[in-house]
Each structure stands twice: as structure tokens, then as C-alpha cells.
């Protein structure tokens, strides 16, 4: 029996070490990366679409306040506006975290001190509370700043793309914001076709809002719009902006991207 003691001790240490490795490896879910998360203003804040041009539309469908701002690692000079992320926090990170993932859309920039972290999400107050265990959201709000895990995922809004004419649009200048974009969520190119023109590239004005100069005498509505995603997929919304369009009006298309990356 005494002769077998070192062998038994080694086996016990080996098993304990393996258990540690299993626990350690399970701390970070497969496919996820680490980040820091804070939340907008207060627990009932829907967040903002300001830096992406979505304004207060983020509070209602299809976003329903499930949005986030991001530091430059995520925002990338607004080119990533519309990207979707699955985020979660575990009890190892905070005892009040549920470990259940939520999906948020990048609709704003978190500047300044957010860039002190490699990756920083500033989540709407409403969405932040959904990371908590049932009945423990207040404790998570009190923490204010937590560690999370995140991964990029495809957007899926269960609706077709919505086009909101920018408030600054007029007969000589047309700007439009694309909302509820599935798949990549973010766009690399938007083009417009008037009733008697070929496709004209638009310029990114702010985030998800793209603009172009219009010659009202020769470039008349209806307008068709062609969107190209980050991964170079394209969809065309024919005649989606009607004659008589108005600034701030929203026009629903009959197209969207596939729900995958």
C-alpha cells in the first residue's frame, strides 16, 4: 500500500489539474472574445442611433432598444454601423449575470474613455438589464462596468429593409438611412438610380446615412436603391422612393439580405 502512495498522489494531482483546465477553458465560450461593457445613462434608456444616423428610431421596432455604441475597435469611423453582436456575461464575471446571450445592433459611437479598453460596448440601459439573472438587474446596474463575451453574428429583423429619407433632403440633395439590414448589417456601398439615369454611387454622410446631389429637372423619382454589404453581397430595391417623397418619411422595400454572414 505504501509503495503505491506516490502513484496515487500523482493520479490525484493529475485529475485535479485536468478539472482545473476544464473549468478554465469553459470560462470563455467557444467562438467568443472578451470585452468591457457599460450602459447608457439609466436602466430605462433605449440608447441612441446618433452617430449612425438612426436618431431615435432605435427605441422602436425593429431595434426595440436592443442596441449598443462601440469604441473605435467596433465603430471603425462609422463603417460598422448596423453590425450585430451576440453578447453575454457569466457568473464568473459577475455573480448577477445570467450567462444567457442577447443580440444588439451597433448604432452609435462610444468615444473618449471607451477607447482605453481594447473593445468596449456601451449598451442601452434596457438591453444591459437583460444580461442579468431574473430579479437581479439592479445589482448589475450598480456594478456599472462589467466584463462580457461577444461575437459577431448575422442580423435578422424579420422584416424587409426600411429607408428613411434624411431630414436635410430637398429637391437638390437626397440622403437616406438604411434600417433593418439583415446579414452583415453594415454597408460598403449605396447606389441610386433615378427614373432616367444609370446607377450613381452615393457618399457616406454619417454611419448608415448616404447622400447624393440631385438634378431635379433631369433626375426624377421614383428612385431605386442598390445596397452592397461588407462582404460584397448586393440587393436592389426597385422604385422604393416614390414621387412626392418627404423628408423624415420611411419607405419599406420588398428586399433584404440573407440572414447569414
UniProtKB/TrEMBL annotation:
Keywords attached to this Swiss-Prot or TrEMBL record, sorted alphabetically, are:
Secreted
Q: Which PROSITE patterns match?
A: EXPANSIN_CBD, EXPANSIN_EG45
Q: Which SMART domains match?
A: DPBB_1
Tree of life domain = Eukaryota
Task: Name the InterPro entries for this protein.
Answer: Expan_Lol_pI (IPR007118), Expansin/allergen_DPBB_dom (IPR007112), Expansin_CBD (IPR007117), Expansin_CBD_sf (IPR036749), LolPI (IPR005795), RlpA-like_DPBB (IPR009009), RlpA-like_sf (IPR036908)
Gene Ontology BP terms: anatomical structure morphogenesis
User: Which Pfam families does the entry mention?
Assistant: DPBB_1, Expansin_C
Q: Where is the protein situated, by its record's location annotation?
A: Secreted
Name the GO cellular-component terms. extracellular region
Write the protein's name.
Answer: Expansin-B2
Query: What family, per the record?
Result: Belongs to the expansin family.
